[in-house]
Amino acid sequence: MSLKPRAIHFGAGNIGRGFIAPLLSKSGYHVVFADVDKELIHTINKEKAYGVHILDISTDEGGKRVEEIIHVKGVLSTSDDILHELAHPKLKVITTAVGVPILDKIAPTIAKGIKARREAGGGTINIIACENAIGATAQLAEKVRLHLDAEDIAYADLHVGFANCSVDRIVPPFTPGEHDAESVLDVGVEEFFEWIVEGPSLKGAHPGALDHPINGMTLTGNLAAYNERKLFTLNAGHAITAYLGHLKGLHTVDESIAHPDVAAVVRGALHHESGAALCRKHKFDEKAHGEYIEKIIVRFENEAVKDDVVRVGRQPLRKLGRGDRLVGPARMCVEYDIPVHNLAKGIAAALLYRNDDDEQSVEMRNAINDKGIHKYVVELTGFEEGSDVHAHILQSYNELKFQAVEYCTITQLNT
Ligand SMILES: NC(=O)c1ccc[n+]([C@@H]2O[C@H](COP(=O)([O-])OP(=O)(O)OC[C@H]3O[C@@H](n4cnc5c(N)ncnc54)[C@H](O)[C@@H]3O)[C@@H](O)[C@H]2O)c1
Ligand SMILES: O=P(O)(O)OC[C@@H](O)[C@@H](O)[C@H](O)[C@H](O)CO
Prior knowledge:
This protein has 415 residues and is an alpha/beta fold. It folds into 2 domains: 6-221, Rossmann fold (3-Layer(aba) Sandwich); 225-413, N-(1-d-carboxylethyl)-l-norvaline Dehydrogenase, domain 2. It has 18 helices and 12 strands. The termini are far apart. 46% of the residues are buried. It binds nicotinamide-adenine-dinucleotide and D-Mannitol-1-phosphate. D-Mannitol-1-phosphate (44H) binds at residues 132, 168-170, 234-235, 238, 312, 314. Residues 10-16, 34-37, 77, 97-100, 102, 105-106, 130-132, 167, 169-171 line the site of nicotinamide-adenine-dinucleotide. It catalyses: D-mannitol 1-phosphate + NAD(+) = beta-D-fructose 6-phosphate + NADH + H(+). This is Mannitol-1-phosphate 5-dehydrogenase. It is an enzyme of class 1 (oxidoreductase). Belongs to the mannitol dehydrogenase family.
């Protein structure tokens, strides 16, 4: 039996293959991917390796650097095989990158795994949900607990660490043929990455740290600040770029941010609105935060990444959640009396996002038609009619709707 520590990663998609698994693998873990996609799992088990293409025009090799990830395994997350993996004595870490709405679906499986570990006397493990949401691991923990009995909960309290994190690396859709890739498993990623994990929640021989450290993972005791900094800056700017770009008929993030109107709204939202509020709340150094924002804009401009506005804009209702990247920073601005003209434009552009292949876009359009935009904005954001923010969102909505007609048919906009 291999002496290597094992890690199970739920979700063998972009961020799983392009970010989390490479760090685990390069830190000496044997990585087992768990996914619902049979074809993908079959290919992982057949090829056992893939390449991570670094998509940076600035890399010495002109964007051609490829990192080989080897000795990976796949297991179908809906089969009993996953339970054997979860009970494995060498298992140390479970990570996820499946999308927040899917955490519900994997929770019962993880709960069965915890029960199996208790019965087998398995060692301590740590679980880290690498999703774009504040407190994603805490949400997962809550869902897992619903499937545990009192004995299992007592065991989990001692032997299972649930650590929240902030995860940052842009991993766009990747077409192997366009990049001389050898395998359909290959992924393309930007060079930059940041994985910040709540240290105090980790369990093991040295509480507050992993028994087998992961190179590239940073531990912190103040995750809340990093979480809000990332979601309300990178993801806020990304979403605004994607929704405004989509309304202009643009297809990629680099094309959208190159449009001066889009860049002006993104800079206004990040520097003068979310940034100003974040600096007030978390006492960030204003100059350093300004540099953080500009570095993010350079990442959006990376032409080698070619990220799709449809990927970045996916699930608009999740993105319009009160604690999420658009309404979240707008609410924080209101707390500090900071006007929100640019975030309001981003929220309005999200409300105008029309994509018949995206269930949440369709649901949003139907809700706007049924309830009317005034009431719907109140329901979604919590900003009352008559408030400045509500008025700014409505004003931007009407202006953008009018401008968007040039690119979309009236039927698509439909409101
Ligand atoms: N791509 C990025 O740039 C990026 C960066 C940071 C964070 N994230 C976050 O990572 C998560 C995943 O994003 P992604 O871009 O990798 O998405 P993706 O669609 O590429 O990958 C998701 C994977 O999860 C699998 N999956 C779905 N249901 C499952 C289930 N029940 N059990 C196991 N696997 C299941 C899918 O088959 C797919 O392979 C999201 O929360 C996203 O916000 C993405
Ligand atoms: O994954 P989502 O849908 O929450 O957000 C889309 C993108 O903004 C996101 O995936 C970024 O690429 C990522 O957060 C970069 O770290």
